[in-house]
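Researcher: Next sequence.
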Amino acid sequence: MVLVVPSSQKIKPSEKVPHKIYQVPYKPGFHEDAMIRLEFEGHKLQLFFKMGEVLRVMCEAALNNTEVLEDLKGFDLIIYDSLASCGVLIGEHLSIPRVELLPAPPNVPFSFRHMIPMPVSYVPQLLTGFTDKMNFLERVMNLGAYLGIKFFIQFAHDRPMDALKVKYKIKPQQSYYEAAADVELVIITADFAIEYSQPLLPGMKS
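Model: Next structure:
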């Protein structure tokens, strides 16, 4: 077992779990200083675009690190967080099965790629402020938010990842969206006792 982390992440090395650190052009604390500041200042749209850019740069740094890739070739499984887009590309590049950890309820944008059923008539989307008690107009607005967020994720996040797949010849015939969906298991860590009820497909555990 080995934990692969970017150099921008503040982490205390463990004697029990070996670490592989790959260099990225961001200093430690960058996420706290730059990303969270945008969140606090209310620049959500700018934050989403910035996140897409940062993820692309970090994934490219990982794909350029031949030492890390060589060390990972012998592994049987890759376990990664939903925000760690590099896990999809590295797993597909090395033909290693993947398990994704979704540390959020299944109605967040990252769940779209897994085709989780999304009954928008009673499952409110993020940032809408709605509850499961929506009138007809609110349901229409909730549907618009669902489609808008899905399109935005594909534009701001998936397209740059598609470009990396083509650049590094990582099965370019398959889109990043399709590659991310081709996962062995999705583990959802949200507490379903306090989330909105919605169906889940096989291959997903909570």
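Model: The chain has a mean pLDDT of 84. The radius of gyration is 18 Å.
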